[in-house]
From TrEMBL:
UniProt keyword Lipid metabolism present: yes
UniProt record similarity statement: Belongs to the short-chain dehydrogenases/reductases (SDR) family.
GO molecular function: all-trans-retinol dehydrogenase (NADP+) activity
Catalyzed chemical reaction(s): all-trans-retinol + NADP(+) = all-trans-retinal + NADPH + H(+)
Lipid metabolism listed as a keyword: yes
Pathway: Cofactor metabolism; retinol metabolism
Highest rank taxon of the organism: Eukaryota
Record-given protein name: NADP-retinol dehydrogenase
E.C. no: 1.1.1.300
Major enzyme class: oxidoreductase
Lineage: Eukaryota, Metazoa, Chordata, Craniata, Vertebrata
Keywords on record: Lipid metabolism, NADP, Oxidoreductase
Amino acid sequence: MFVLIAAAGLGLLTLLVIVFAPNIRKYAAGGVCKSAARLDGKTVLITGANTGIGKETALDLAVRGARVIMACRDVEKGEEAAASIRASYSQAQVEVRELDLADTCSIRAFAQQFLREVNHLHILINNAGVMMCPYTKTIDGFEMHIGVNHLGHFLLTSLLIGLLKRSAPARIVVVSSLAHNFGWIRFHDLHSQGSYNSGLAYCQSKLANVLFARELARRLKGTSVTVNSVHPGTVNSDLTRHSTLMTIFFTVFSMFLKTPREGAQTTIYCAVAEELHSISGKHFSDCTPAFVAPQGRSEETARRLWDVSCELLAIEWD
Ligand SMILES: NC(=O)C1=CN([C@@H]2O[C@H](COP(=O)(O)OP(=O)(O)OC[C@H]3O[C@@H](n4cnc5c(N)ncnc54)[C@H](OP(=O)(O)O)[C@@H]3O)[C@@H](O)[C@H]2O)C=CC1
Ligand SMILES: CC1=C(/C=C/C(C)=C/C=C/C(C)=C/C=O)C(C)(C)CCC1
């Protein structure tokens, strides 16, 4: 009897999903960037642009006329992505440069060459990220999530901030996540040496993204360089590659998830929307202002994280 009821319930649910498929898709797609802003003559740098949200962001901004520099750790993958962008839009000005955010030497070498060869930077998009990888350390000994998602981007931004200021008005977009809500900055064990949970390590790094954007915005007041963080939505991308369970879940429920193109909308919105020209230090989702968890609003935590980041990277940045 129970099996019959369960089967009938499942059948009904499947039928409802099929009938309401277009509505479900429309809801899942979320907000769209409606700005028609052009970026002719502007230079954009996007990290992790060879796939997922980063690649779609690169395509959109290239279509708007920008010169888009795709910073990728695997140049071959980057060139393939650039070729597919050129195939979609023949006039796309896209270039690939090597950047491994898990290696401060690579970040420094990238920035050095960038500053030598590129005269302006109007939009920096800190998009690259790793999620739920097994316990690994970056070349410099940082836990991979905090190392790549936060510290790598922190160093990169510090090295390019002068150029951004000279190119102002300029914008920085930090791709964070709703996952920041479940994160805490564990100052006593930032690199999870005591205990490691890959999900919590990801959440910590995404909280660090929110805190970095807020603290940087505070420090950039009056410079015409703005910085905002975004949650792109739940996006069917390669991000789940380290978790079989998540990959299966994302495949089964793909209809309820955003495509990378849909997931890129809030990043694009923060990068181009005219009405955001002076908005800084805010968090966005679905192209609208979004809730920030209390731990993401703590000025004290933000300042402390800033100092700790400078110390770990052996840099001075005030
Ligand atoms: N997908 C989702 O549901 C959500 C995503 N986000 C955030 O969106 C951002 C983009 O993710 P998404 O497009 O989904 O994921 P993908 O896995 O598709 O893309 C991640 C990108 O980051 C790059 N990357 C990873 N490690 C490094 C490194 N050490 N140096 C340089 N680049 C690196 C990857 O390069 P490679 O291909 O070579 O590995 C890839 O280009 C991330 O910051 C993620 O945290 C936030 C919330 C939800
Ligand atoms: C619960 C639930 C879902 C799962 C959401 C998940 C698993 C979100 C993961 C978010 C990530 C990976 C954020 C990264 O920063 C679906 C499939 C949307 C639809 C049905 C209800």
